[in-house]
Write a sequence for this structure.
């Protein structure tokens, strides 16, 4: 399958371009970028064609799919155009900043019969699969509380990086359409994955680095049965490990990634002589899952502990996109999870802005 990259605005644009090059089922053949200088430089780096007009790129019959890593405020324009041109789409989260835009994208995707996958990369870790299997087994009973935390130090100003290592455009409220909840939203979609779609959302935002968007946030999800979900995310934590905490009527679960838990940027990866791509973000991790349950004989009197090897991770979201295309299957779970993510993020942004809880059924829809 011949693919093109639409913009290298997102910090993971290179990661997915590298996956396109490395994957045996795809070939990177062209690049477009709203920043022509950046786009031409990346085309030279990858030895492919730079096309200055994305409409001309989408009109090419020899391009089968696109990787959209553009500014968030361009998602609707680019992805609707790509779908209408019959191109399969792989994109960074979120689908869009508003439900109405995400619905417009999905309407175009469905109408044109193209395959659309969002990079919800932590959903496809072996740890998430193992946790969901425990939940589905009934070992924890009816869930009452889920908390997921993810963070890195990209907003912290240091001697090495006076403005922080995260690119400045990620703090642009127009381009990014939000801050850490919009970008580092892994806790949001995982909380939704484990606990289901909430009724309403409340959020507390802070900007420790005094940027125009939040870099520190807690999002609270309310459920009709009284359960609570808490998604914590931050660009302002030096060594906070990724963690999951789940409690239910019959048991509890704790998961933590220990080791070099902070995000590693390209410069530090390059200095260490290792590649920077999604498959290597967990270098050196010690991934530990602990369970107590009245329903498990080995976990009734003490915590049952297991280590989850990094090598056990399922295929990446990109690889699953390629598989869905080749096998002509529908990524239904990914689509629903990504749509609910968009709704929760929009509700969280409204909640923080207006200091109130926001029901998901109150959000505006695409007409």
């Amino acid at each position: 399958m011949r693919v093109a990259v639409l913009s290298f605005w997102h910090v993971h644009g290179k990661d997915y371009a590298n996956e396109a090059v490395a994957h045996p089922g795809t070939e990177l053949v062209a690049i477009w970028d709203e920043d022509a200088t950046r786009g031409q430089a990346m085309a030279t780096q990858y030895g492919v064609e730079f096309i200055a007009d994305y409409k001309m790129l989408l009109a090419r019959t020899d391009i089968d799919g696109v990787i959209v890593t553009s500014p968030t405020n361009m998602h609707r324009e680019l992805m609707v155009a790509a779908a209408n041109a019959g191109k399969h789409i792989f994109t960074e989260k979120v689908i869009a900043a508003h439900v109405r835009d995400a619905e417009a994208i999905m309407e175009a995707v469905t109408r044109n019969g193209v395959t659309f996958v969002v990079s919800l990369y932590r959903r496809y870790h072996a740890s998430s699969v193992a946790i969901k299997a425990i939940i589905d087994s009934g070992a924890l009973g009816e869930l009452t509380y889920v908390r997921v935390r993810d963070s890195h130090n990209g907003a912290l100003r240091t001697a090495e990086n006076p403005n922080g290592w995260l690119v400045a455009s990620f703090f642009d409220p127009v381009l990014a359409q939000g801050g850490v909840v919009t970008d580092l939203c892994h806790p949001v979609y995982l909380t939704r994955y484990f606990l289901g779609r909430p009724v309403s959302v409340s959020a507390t935002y802070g900007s420790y680095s005094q940027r125009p968007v939040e870099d520190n946030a807690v999002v609270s999800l309310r459920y009709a049965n009284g359960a609570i979900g808490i998604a914590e995310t931050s660009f302002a934590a030096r060594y906070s490990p990724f963690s999951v905490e789940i409690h239910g009527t019959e048991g509890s679960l704790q998961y933590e990634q220990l080791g070099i838990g902070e995000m590693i940027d390209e410069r530090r990866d390059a200095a260490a002589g290792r590649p920077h791509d999604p498959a290597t973000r967990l270098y050196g991790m010690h991934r530990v899952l602990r369970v107590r349950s009245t329903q498990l004989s080995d976990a009734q009197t003490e915590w049952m502990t297991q280590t989850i090897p990094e090598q056990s991770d399922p295929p990446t979201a990109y690889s699953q996109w390629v598989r869905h295309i080749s096998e002509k299957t529908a990524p239904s779970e990914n689509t629903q999870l990504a749509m609910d993510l968009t709704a929760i993020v929009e509700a969280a942004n409204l909640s923080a802005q207006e200091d109130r809880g926001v029901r998901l059924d109150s959000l505006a829809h695409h007409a």
Confidence is low (pLDDT under 50) at residues 260-272, 274-283. The longest strand covers residues 143-151. Residues 332-354 form the longest helix (23 residues). The two ends are 34 Å apart (CA to CA).
